[in-house]
Write a structure and sequence with these properties.
The protein has helices at residues 17-30, 54-61, 122-129, 150-160, 244-253, 257-263, 319-334, 353-357, 362-370; strands at 6-12, 38-44, 66-72, 74-78, 84-88, 93-99, 103-110, 138-143, 166-170, 182-186, 194-196, 200-207, 210-216, 219-221, 226-232, 235-239, 267-272, 285-294, 299-302, 311-317, 343-349, 376-381, 384-388, 391-395, 399-405. The chain is of the alpha+beta class.
Length: 409
């Protein structure tokens, strides 16, 4: 009988860095019966002045071959009672440890200026990352929001590693880039105990491991799907052969008063990812912001490149829509017959949490209601990384869940 993977998460709100690290290491190690192969640490920006001490302190208390992590304005973890907790804007550390038999664990760090051109061969990307494409690795990426060229990196990874799952988030802080930190250490690759301020640190897991994803973008569609009949880069010039702004005004006029008020501050577009799918549901759209309108031309600018022939549908986002979206996705996941989940990571937008729902722990508790008794770790991101429609994107106002399980039970 094959050995089973084991995961543990620990959370500490001790205000002293030494005490908090001691706390999470003791809790997490005591939950495992085997030595950990992997550590993932998320640390709140309350400790920003002490980031350089994080890996040395962890290595004093913990012997683990591979460790990655990053800073966040808030962190997510599992309490001693097994409940998930989201801690926003306060001193906290979340540590996840994994014992992963039959799994190959590799780490890497890449800077934006090192990335190949987007027309380069897959081999150029594989050489840069240093991870073989077979068996398909499962990637967790932690990126700086500054000069990381994360969108180019995601396109390159999708191209070079077809069939791989890519999730993660952009580090966040209470200040500028100087307060953002990425952590990466590996005993055997000469990376030992490195702190980075820019680029992307990545974790590649291959072998007997699967990362299932739930990408909750938190919107509900309004009106009907429409086709972009004229566009230039990110500017929509015609929708269904009509002036986009006129189409939008007619749509808003058809809404209820409550929806019209919401549309003034929380209106988005959903780009349809499968142009051949007729019945559209949650998960079929890539949600993008509306950046502005040109009243004279009636054009609408959005936060992504769009081409003629694409379909889109306008969307509204609020706490109720976000809750319904996540619940529908969780219900869909629960109905699928997979090997039992062993752990989960949550990469949640800074714009969610208390600011969206008016209460703490909403996303993590809803997740726990459907997928319970698994250790959860994560943080509040400046951009969330996850797949939609077979490709990987950076999202906003989204919660990306990565559910880790063995390939075979």
């Amino acid at each position: 009988m094959a050995e089973q993977m084991q995961w543990a998460n620990a959370l500490s709100t001790r205000p002293s860095l030494e005490a908090a690290i001691t706390d999470v290491v003791e809790q997490a190690v005591s939950s495992l019966t085997e030595p950990a192969d992997l550590g993932v640490v998320f640390i709140s920006s309350a400790f920003a002045s002490e980031y350089s001490r994080v890996l040395p302190l962890l290595s004093e208390k913990l012997s683990v071959p591979v460790m990655i992590g990053c800073s966040g304005l808030g962190v997510i973890g599992t309490t001693a009672t097994g409940k998930p907790q989201e801690l926003e804007g306060e001193a906290a550390i979340s540590l996840t440890l994994g014992y992963l038999p039959g799994v190959n664990v590799e780490v890497f760090h890449v800077r934006g200026e090192e990335l190949p051109d987007l027309d380069s061969s897959p081999d150029a990307w594989i050489d840069l990352i240093g991870v073989q494409p077979s068996p398909s690795p499962q990637f967790i990426l932690l990126s700086s929001a500054f000069s990381s060229r994360i969108n180019d990196l995601l396109q390159g990874l999708d191209f070079a590693y077809p069939g791989s799952v890519i999730v993660g988030g952009q580090a966040s802080s209470g200040g500028g880039s100087s307060q953002i930190s990425l952590f990466c250490s590996h005993d055997g690759q000469g990376i030992h105990q490195r702190l980075y301020r820019e680029g992307t640190v990545g974790l590649a897991l291959s072998g007997n491991v699967v990362l299932d994803t739930i990408v909750a973008q938190g919107c509900r569609p309004i009106g009907q799907p429409m086709q972009v009949t004229k566009a230039e880069r990110n500017i929509i010039l015609e929708l269904d052969d009509k002036v986009p702004l006129m189409v939008l005004r007619d749509l808003i006029a058809s809404l209820s008063e409550e929806e019209r008020i919401l549309a003034q501050r929380s209106l988005f577009v959903g780009l349809v990812m499968d142009q051949f799918k007729l019945s559209l549901q949650q998960g079929d759209f890539l949600i993008r912001s509306i950046l502005g309108v040109d009243p004279s031309a009636g054009a609408i600018a959005i936060g992504d490149v769009i081409r003629p022939g694409q379909r889109l549908q306008f969307q509204l986002r609020d706490a109720q829509a976000s809750a319904q979206d996540l619940e529908l996705l969780l219900q869909g996941y629960q109905k699928q017959q997979f090997s039992p989940p062993a752990a989960a990571f949550i990469f949640s937008c800074l714009g969610r949490g208390q600011g969206l729902y008016g209460q703490s722990n909403f996303d993590s508790e809803l997740f726990n209601r459907y997928i319970h008794d698994v250790p959860i770790g994560g943080f509040f991101c400046n951009g969330e990384i996850g797949p939609v429609g077979g490709n990987t994107f950076v999202h906003g106002y989204t919660s990306v869940f990565a559910i880790c399980r063995p390939m075979i039970s």
